[in-house]
Specification:
Chain B: Keywords: ATP-binding, Nucleotide-binding, Transport. Chain B: Belongs to the ABC transporter superfamily. Chain B: It holds the Pfam family ABC_tran. The complex is a heterotrimer. By secondary structure, chain A is mainly alpha-helical. Chain A has one domain: MetI-like (MetI-like fold). Chain A is built from 13 helices and no strands. The radius of gyration of chain A is 24 Å and the shape is globular. Chain B is α/β, with parallel strands linked by helices. Chain B contains 20 helices and 20 strands. In chain B, helix 5 packs parallel to helix 6. By secondary structure, chain C is mainly alpha-helical. Chain C has a single domain, classed as Orthogonal Bundle (MetI-like fold), CATH 1.10.3720.10. In chain C, helix 3 packs antiparallel against helix 8, helix 4 packs antiparallel against helix 6 and helix 8 packs parallel to helix 9. The longest helix of chain C has 37 residues. Classes of the chains: A mainly alpha, B alpha/beta, C mainly alpha. The interface between A and C is large, with 51 and 42 residues.
């Protein structure tokens, strides 16, 4: 088990390193000169030069990469050109919206999809299975931002149950937290449902595949009824492929927040990165992309750990 | 009174008739052998008794077990029977156990379910049962997972699950087919002892007459979903009243007519293997552990003469397939050298190997997996022509394919078909046609008949013998089946844990094995005549 | 005397016949073909010219004259959807093409070569998988500014490891098979075996994955153009139409309805086609009944 986890950890770190190199190079091959973008077109050559050396742009690329990397590791993501404040502060503020949103969506999607998938597999071929999978088939095809717009139209514009957009902050007391939660509810539903549709299909087919295995017949031959076999023998084996998809989905959910935050005007990371692009505030883009990539890599590492827990074949050296 | 009584059982799956008017009865404490070739319906008969049939199956007739009408019994009643009064052992031990549950949990589960005892008590009984089937807790704690056990050990766990509650009837569906002969003998002994101890009835399903002759009091022979003949084992198999029984028995002990190899032929060496070794790295247990390796083939030397037929026998995992691959230059030795027809193989590049490859070809075990399913027979059989220096044109190619097909008893028109249009035996003929098309000097055959039914096996063995005589091709037969080795080879090598422990004239080695490994193989090998003789003695003696 | 059991080969119907008998394939095919035809038709004819702005006719509801209504500049929505289909299809096709064109050779090469090459490919895959298409598009836009090509490159890059993985897994499961060993014993090299034996046997896997990635590509393109990172005006695209509809939802919800439905129907059609293809081409994966 330790060997397996050590290997996955090493791979995760290496991936992070390569990813950082990619992000840094993207900034490097950029056609514009950051100093010029900051000072505008009319800046004097002297002022430009002064800013360049202040920003360290006159130093060799390798050194600047290492500095940048060291900065990242110690939480120094540089300063935003447009907000004139450290990127880390901007990010910290925005994470308090994006992270709860992504986690709510993930929890919602898992809580809906896995029971539905198991239920459909257990009732394979019956009407309830056909209906559930029909809905899932359509759900997979719905773009989350369009679904979000429909939700806004129905629940915010029509029924006035929740705010149509914006985020009041988490507030000081439980009332404030409730307001914040309400503001994230529709976005989380919009993010979660298309993912839940995919996940329920995967869960169902994983369950059906496992139900055809020889060991299921062995369990039936022991005298266990169909239902007990499903819960005791099929489920844990079926969860292994479901975990893979869950890991991949987290990446999609994170990316999805960029779109959904724009639909609901939520001040999260997605909105930050989007505004930073239109203002060509590349330090911010770089910092946020790095953060998102790092969290995807961490999630994949967690999935690998879950694998080892779910599948004893990974735990022993073989 | 019978424990199990099947009357007029018919079964359809969808539109296809599977079983027709099956009658079968098993008395308490009796061992019933159920024999038949693949597709004869013997497994479906067993699954009907357990009521574990596929969804689309519809059964008619009567199946009475211990006074209960099985076909009419509700699912809840069947759940009470399964695992408690009827236990079942399956063919494939590698997949029959849940990979994410410990063996202790899997044995204890049925005990808890049926008796309602608490977890520690169930575990205590599971422990005792595992100990009884030969998996003592010191070496095999209950917390082991299936992947940490070998195939034979896993089959013991499956038997422990099936026998944990001392069922009245144990159904064993080809319980040893996936195991090598030595393991087969051990598992059959275990089953026999368990049945005797607990006064269980046993329904033993097998394709192997010798196994059934050895184990069963009475035998039922099935074919095409019908019972051909049933009766007391020794009498049924010796008197052979039904013509199908006679054909089956003859095919099981079939020895192809073979000319003695001419003395002049054997003097010239075709293949010479010297000190060949093959190591495989073992994945390290931790990042800092020393890199270890597993020696699959250990310092093997032998030589094979032109036109000679040699067998390489041994238990599964003894390294015989690895050795074969190195001879075929599909794998490279870690050490030692291989000379074929005057050329060394181990140091050649793929390009330099072409002349040698032309003169050695291969026939594999699985007649289903040996062909690209998307190619027609013409293209499949013609594949080795790639090795000729001068590529034949389309017309010549078809002539060569036609010739090869006719040599193996197929017709030239078969070249237009796809492999799925042929039966298993015919596919193995196509496989042989592909091997002979370049007129090779050596054919390496890796278990070429072990996936075939006995009757087809006899025909393919005849074909091998015939080609040896007509084309003078030498064989290296890799097999775990001593009957096959005895039938078709002049010399034999016994391989054990990577080494060749005994070699010599086939009959001499098998009649008087000298080493432990060879003795174990010979003693374990099922032999129809010997089994019948012993059964007759037992009957007449008491 | 033959003891060979009477062997009647199963009547192997032609793949096409089997496919057309599959409900999901048939529905998927009809939908996908209709959308593709609609996109083709838009090159020659649309109900209205969408480059002419008719501000007097803006934001009309559904009518016989404009079946799907008009937008805030008086353009006919049906015509815009027809032309928008071109953009969606083109982006998705090129992105799947990039993914297959690079991914399949890489994946089969890694499987044939094994060892370090295989390990290296898998590690590169890990890196690419850490950049969802949207993030890549964001970075590309940050460098080169927005445009339809960004969307293609971003989605295409993400498709490469997807196809590499599928091709590698398929090839790895084939290499130890006996027919491959027989081909090696016939002196065929790894490249030739890959072309003759591996590729034809993983085509069905790739086709099924292709339809899935095609559908995902359309969804991703819609998302990118919704954010303004994809096709730029005046080129109509479904995602862009949704963006423009958003602020006018309260007064004219139909503006958001039809472009959204167009995406849903197209993606649904492709997914049905993929499910059907898988059932037809790979009987092992077919659901019982």
């Amino acid at each position: 088990m330790t060997a397996y986890l050590a290997k996955r950890l090493a791979i995760g770190l290496a991936t992070l390193l390569v990813a950082s190199l990619v992000v840094f190079s993207v900034l490097e091959i950029l056609p514009g000169d950051p100093a010029r973008i900051m000072l505008g077109l009319n800046a004097s050559p002297e002022a430009l030069e002064a800013l360049r050396s202040q920003m360290g742009l006159d130093r060799p690329v390798v050194l600047r990469y290492l500095d940048w990397l060291a900065g990242m590791a110690t939480g120094d993501f540089g300063r935003s050109y447009t907000y004139s404040s450290p990127v880390i502060e901007l990010v910290a503020e925005r994470v308090s919206v994006s992270l709860p949103l992504a986690l709510m969506a993930l929890a919602l999607s898992t809580a809906i999809a896995i029971p539905v998938g198991i239920f459909a597999a257990a009732r394979r071929g019956r009407l309830s299975d056909t209906i559930a999978m029909g809905i899932a088939q359509v759900g997979v095809a719905i773009p989350n931002f369009w679904f979000a717009m429909l939700l806004v139209y129905i629940f915010a514009v029509g029924l006035r149950l929740v705010p149509a957009g914006g985020f009041p902050g988490w507030g000081e007391d439980w009332g404030g937290v409730w307001q914040g939660f309400k503001a994230l509810l529709l976005p989380a539903v919009a993010l979660a449902l298309p993912q839940a549709a995919i996940l329920s299909r995967v869960t169902r087919s994983a369950m059906l595949e496992v139900m055809g295995e020889d060991y299921i017949r062995t369990a039936r031959a022991k005298g266990l009824p169909r239902r007990a076999v499903l819960w005791r023998h099929a489920l844990r084996n079926a969860l292994i492929p479901v975990l893979t998809i869950l890991g991949l989905q987290f990446a999609f959910l994170l990316a999805g927040t960029i779109i959904i935050e724009n639909v609901f005007y939520l001040p999260g990371l997605g909105r930050l990165i989007f505004q930073a692009i239109s203002q060509r505030d590349l330090i911010v883009v770089e910092g946020v992309v790095m953060l998102l990539v790092a969290s995807i890599i961490v999630i994949n590492l967690l999935v690998d750990i879950c694998y080892a827990i779910a599948d004893p074949r990974l735990r022993t050296g073989r | 009174m019978s424990l199990l009584e099947i009357e007029n059982l018919s079964l359809r799956i969808g539109e296809a008739p599977i079983l027709k008017d099956i009658d079968l009865s098993i008395a308490p404490g009796e061992v019933m052998g159920l024999v038949g070739e693949s597709g004869s319906g013997k497994s479906m008969t067993a699954l009907t008794m357990m009521k574990l049939l596929p969804h689309a199956a519809r059964a008619q007739g009567r199946v009475t077990f211990d006074g209960i009408n099985i076909l009419a019994a509700p699912e809840a009643a069947m759940c009470r029977l399964r695992g408690d009064d009827i236990g079942m052992v399956f063919q494939e031990p590698m997949t029959a156990l849940n990979p994410v549950k410990t063996i202790g949990e899997q044995v204890a589960e049925g005990i808890r379910w049926h008796t309602g005892v608490n977890r520690p008590d169930a575990e205590a009984r599971a422990r005792a049962m595992l100990e009884r089937v030969g998996l003592p807790e010191r070496q095999f704690p209950l917390t082991r997972y299936p992947h940490e056990l070998s195939g034979g050990q896993r089959q013991r766990v499956v038997i422990a699950i099936a026998c944990a509650l001392k069922p009245k009837l144990l159904i064993a569906d080809e319980p040893t087919t996936a195991l090598d002969v030595v393991l087969q003998a051990q598992i059959l002994d275990l089953l026999r002892d368990l049945v005797d101890e607990n006064r269980m009835s046993l329904l033993l399903i097998s394709h192997d007459l010798a196994v059934v002759a050895d184990m069963a009091d009475r035998t039922t022979i099935m074919r095409h979903g019908q019972v051909m003949e049933a009766g007391e084992t020794a009498r049924t198999l010796t008197e052979q009243v039904h013509p199908y029984t006679r054909r089956l028995a003859e095919a099981s002990t079939h020895v192809p007519a073979r000319a003695k190899p001419a003395a002049g032929d054997t003097s010239e060496t075709l293949l010479k293997v010297e000190g060949v070794t093959r190591d495989y790295p073992i994945r390290r247990a931790s990042l800092f552990a020393k890199r270890q390796s597993f020696r699959a083939v250990d310092d093997v030397s032998f030589s094979l003469a032109r036109g000679q037929s040699m067998a390489l026998v041994g238990r599964s995992g003894c390294g015989k397939s690895t050795l074969a691959r190195m001879i075929l230059a599909l794998d490279r030795p870690t050490g030692g050298s291989i000379h074929f027809d005057g050329e060394t193989l181990e140091d050649k590049s793929e390009d330099q190997l072409r002349p040698s490859r032309r003169h050695m070809q291969v026939v594999f075990q699985d007649p289903y997996g040996s062909f690209n399913p998307r190619h027609k027979v013409e293209r499949l059989v013609a594949e080795p022509l790639h090795l000729l220096d001068e590529k034949p044109d389309a017309k010549r190619r078809r002539e060569l394919v036609a010739e090869a097909l006719e040599q193996v008893g197929l017709s030239a028109s078969d070249m237009e078909k796809y492999p799925h249009e042929f039966s298993g035996g015919q596919r193995q003929r196509i496989s042989i046609a592909r091997a002979v098309i370049t007129k090779p000097k050596l054919i390496v055959a890796d278990e070429p008949v072990s996936a075939l039914d006995v009757s087809i096996r006899a025909q393919i063995l005849d074909l091998f013998a015939d080609l040896n005589r007509r084309l003078g091709v030498a064989y290296l037969f890799i097999t775990h089946d001593l009957t096959v080795a005895r039938a078709i080879t002049d010399r034999v090598m016994v391989m054990h844990e990577g080494r060749i422990v005994e070699a010599g004239d086939t009959h001499a080695v098998f009649d008087r094995p000298k080493t432990e490994a060879a003795k174990a193989l010979v003693d374990a090998a099922p032999d129809l005549d010997r089994a019948l003789r012993m059964r007759m003695e037992r009957v007449s003696g008491g | 005397m033959s003891l060979d059991p009477v062997f009647t080969p199963a009547p192997e119907r032609h793949v096409l016949v089997k496919a057309l008998a599959n409900r999901s394939f048939l529905i998927g095919l009809v939908i996908t073909a209709s959308i593709a035809l609609m996109a083709l038709l838009s090159f020659f004819w649309t109900p209205y010219d969408i480059t002419r702005l008719q501000v007097a006719d803006r934001m009309q509801g559904l009518s016989l004259v404009h079946p799907f209504g008009t937008d805030h500049m008086g353009r006919d929505i049906l015509s815009m959807i027809m032309i928008g289909a071109r953009n969606s299809i083109a982006v998705a096709i090129v992105a799947v093409g990039i993914g297959m064109g690079l991914g399949v050779p890489l994946g089969t090469w890694a499987a044939a070569r094994g060892g370090w090459a295989d390990e290296a490919l898998m590690r590169v895959n890990d890196v690419v998988f850490a950049f969802p298409a949207l993030l890549t598009a964001v970075m590309i836009t940050a460098i080169f500014g927005p445009g339809a090509v960004n969307a293609i490159i971003a989605i295409g890059i993400f498709n490469v490891p997807v196809f590499a993985r599928i091709a590698r897994a398929g090839a790895l499961s084939l290499w130890p098979r006996e027919f491959i060993l027989a081909a090696r014993a016939s002196g065929k090299g790894k490249a030739l075996i890959t072309i003759e034996h591996i590729l034809p046997n993983i085509v069905s896997l790739l086709l099924v994955q292709g339809t899935i990635q095609f559908a995902l590509g359309i969804l991703a393109e819609a998302g990118l153009s919704y954010l303004g990172l994809g096709a730029q005006p005046p080129m109509p695209s479904w995602g862009r139409m949704l963006f423009e509809a958003q602020t006018r939802m309260a007064v004219a919800p139909h503006l958001a309805l039809f472009p959204g439905l167009a995406i849903v129907v197209t993606v649904l059609g492709l997914n049905l086609l993929g499910d059907g293809l898988r059932d037809v081409l790979d009987p092992r994966l077919r659901r019982e009944r």
